[in-house]
Structures are given as C-alpha cells and as structure tokens.
Predict the 3D structure of the following.
Amino acid sequence: MNLNITEKNYRKLVLQVSLNGFSFCVVDTLNDELLTFQDIPFNVFQRNNKVEDLYWKAFLDHKELTKIYDEIVVVHDNNLNTFVPKPLFDEEYLASYLQYNTKVFETDFYTFDVIQNQEINNVYVPYVNLNNYLLDQFESFDYKHFSSILLERLLAFSKNKEETQVFVHFSGEKFEIVVLKNQQLLLYNSFDYSTKEDFIYYLLFTAEQLQLNPEYFNLSLLGAISEEDEFFEIAYKYIRNVQLLDVSALQHRNNFTKADNLKHFILFQS
C-alpha cells in the first residue's frame, strides 16, 4: 500500500476472496471510475490443492495484483456471519453469536463490521489463512465481509421506499435473501443450492414466514443471474413482481455490461 501522499497514484485494488476462487477490480479513485476487473475461479480439481498456492499462482498470472496501490480492500465471501442488534452486542462474546447458525471451532478468529446508519453489527469469521497470505503480498489492507457491503448498498437502493423490498443475490453455490422495509433489515439469510427447485422453495418459505404475499411484494434479483436464467424464470412463475436489480447508476462508473455489474455488484462498490 502506498502511504506517501506525494506519490499517490489514485488507484485502489479490491479483492473479493473465497475458497472457490476470487475476483478483483482496479478503481481510479480520482475520477471514481472502475478501470478493470477479473474473475479467477478455481475448478473442482484445483480445490484439492492448498488454497494459498492457488492464490500464489493467480498473482503470478495477473500483474495488476503486484502493482502499487494507495488503498487495498479485501472482501471475505462466505456464509459464516450473522447480524446482531447493537443493544445485544458485546465484543467479548463474538463466537456466541455464530454458534447457533454455523459450525464454529475454538481456533476460529472472529471479527465484526459496523453497518452504516443501522443499529446492527455483522459478526463473521474471515479467512485468516488468506489474510495472512495477502499480508505477505501487500503489508496492510482493510477487510470486510461481503454481506456488510451487500446490505449497505441495498439499504441505499431502497431509500425512500416504504413497501417491503425482497432481494436475492446469486453466486455459484449459494444465494442470499435480504428483506428490507423502511430502511430496516427484516431478514438476512444465506442458502446453499443446486437446483431451481431448491431456490424457489427457500424463497417461498421465507415469504410465508414473513407473511409476504407473492402477489404483492417486489422481488429484485442480482448477482450471477439473467432474465434467460432458469432461476429468473421460476421466480417469475410464482411471484408477480420480479425484475433484475437496476444497476444503471453503477454502470455510469464503468464501461462493463449490465451482466457484469449485476454479477459484481459487491466487488464494484467495495
């Protein structure tokens, strides 16, 4: 990271990391413009290798990752998190918040993000091995959980909308359901899935639990999704008001496609 103000290059590097691969983008901070991005998935055979070795190989192949940046942000992408209301939050007991919805170990490291303009914190388990590897590459960086960024951006998107808003964010092997109303979080949950039937079951069950009528609530889809996708089609079959999230404002910051901006909604705004 470049800390000398006389040598600023006005470039920020953002990495969204997981055990199945990672993506990164470079941001021109002077003009608030996204310059480039790259997806680096690990296939099922590669996943048998040590994950740090896969990152090491990717750093050799992509020279943008070895350049000097004024700012570096690492986004941890997993479902090892939970949102905790601030009145119930105690930094001394982070592990206790996660033990009911995910498998935790005594050796796990816990941290949290403060959610902007909300009375909640996001407690999560970052990938410590990846943080350690990246510290060897960059010396220092900031990191957050991807769900913190997703929630903050969706809250901004739903500003001045009084009706209940339902969002589903798709990635390769999991999806997140976020339900907001009057700038408040009603529900956040992450689900593993493999078929469209898995997806619609979890979505309709969530709607039922929140007493949301599929004839009336608005559903916005984002992430790795398109109108031609079978997941969009089955949502459209069972829910009256379905659309892809409007990412036109985000597209003004780059020259990438609508599909790119939907898929990398979190990466591009970190």
Summary: The mean pLDDT is 93. The radius of gyration is 19 Å. The helical segments are 51-61, 94-98, 128-138, 146-157, 196-209, 230-238, 248-251, 258-263.
